[in-house]
Amino acid sequence: MSTHSKGFSLIEIAITLAVLGILIASGIPSLRLWIQSTQVRTAAESIQNGLQLARAEAVRRNANVRFQLTTSIDASCAISNSGTNWVVSLGSPVSACASFVTDTSSTGVIQAWSNKDGASNAEVSSTTASTIIFNGLGRQVSSGTDASGNAIPVAPIVISVINSKGGACTTASVDGIRCMNVAVSTGGNIRMCDPALNSSDPQGC
């Protein structure tokens, strides 16, 4: 009576490991792009949430509330056109981003967010305003004056979030990072959109 051994031979194991290695290697670039794109979406969603909070607080308090992009959220913070950290405050949070306030305080921080929370590689590539102020009606108001002392006109604002460390933004025909825009209308409406998609697409810009 002949006996048959059960299990895998060394050659079968080697072939299986080789095929598995090829599959993993082919999937690494896509996984890397997905991870880097996730950081962009995390930052963009956070900015959108911060803007919505600022608008809601302005309506709740019937007072001006500002959303500002900052270099950090500690005592050394400054306004930034490229940072994805943000602060929602009643007054200017410069050098006081860690100073939270009560409902009766006239200045200080209501809430802050750091890009270290899952979006350290994300950055703002461009924005038409680093300070966005909402009034008690939830509408945008002037964010201050320009170098000549003239009031900055209220206009639609677009904040573009990218990940230059991860790679270039994708287009309709090229693989890459899924970059995102956050748009704020003069009326205070806030939405996040994908610039790689056609404007006719509900998720496109």
TrEMBL record:
GO terms for cellular component: plasma membrane; type II protein secretion system complex. It holds the Pfam family N_methyl. PROSITE patterns: PROKAR_NTER_METHYL. It is a single-pass membrane protein. Residues 43-145 form the General secretion pathway GspH domain. GO terms for biological process: protein secretion by the type II secretion system. The chain crosses the membrane at residues 7-28. InterPro entries: N_methyl_site, Pilin-like, T2SS_GspH. It is found in: Cell inner membrane. Keywords: Cell inner membrane, Cell membrane, Membrane, Methylation, Transmembrane, Transmembrane helix. Belongs to the GSP H family. This is Type II secretion system protein H.
